[in-house]
Write a structure and sequence with these properties.
mainly alpha, elongated, 2 helices, single chain, 0% strand, 81% helix
Length: 124
């Protein structure tokens, strides 16, 4: 028999911009080293690999904050929507309770009125 699975831990907060910047700096160092060492003409493509790494890293440094802000906005919108739905459900439930209480009161009032007329009829 298997044990019940524990819930997943929450995601660990990270500084993704710092990670992208560190990777970009590493590609820049690699480019400088390759330029200083000097490569044979058939291995010059390594320089372009470093340039591509730097370009992708700079794009990541620019894009990651925008991505995280967009995700935070979406999550806030989802949370607000869930909150509105929960409050409307709670209002609907309380309104339904009020309606059923009013219906119960009118049923009791109608029953007491019927009893009053039947008592008057028997008294006459």
């Amino acid at each position: 028999m298997t044990r019940p699975r524990r819930p997943d831990p929450p995601p660990m907060p990270t500084n993704d911009v710092r990670i992208a910047a560190t990777g970009t700096a590493a590609w820049a160092v690699a480019l400088v080293v390759l330029l200083l060492v000097g490569l044979p003409s058939e291995d010059r493509w390594w320089l372009w690999v470093c340039v591509a790494g730097i370009a992708i890293g700079l794009f990541a440094v620019w894009y990651v904050p925008r991505l995280q802000r967009g995700r935070a906005r979406q999550e806030a919108a989802r949370a607000a929507k869930r909150e509105r739905e929960a409050s409307s459900e709670a209002e609907g439930a309380s309104a339904q309770e009020d309606t059923s209480a009013q219906e119960g009161a009118s049923v009791q009032k109608g029953a007491s009125e019927r009893e009053g007329t039947s008592e008057r009829e028997t008294a006459d």
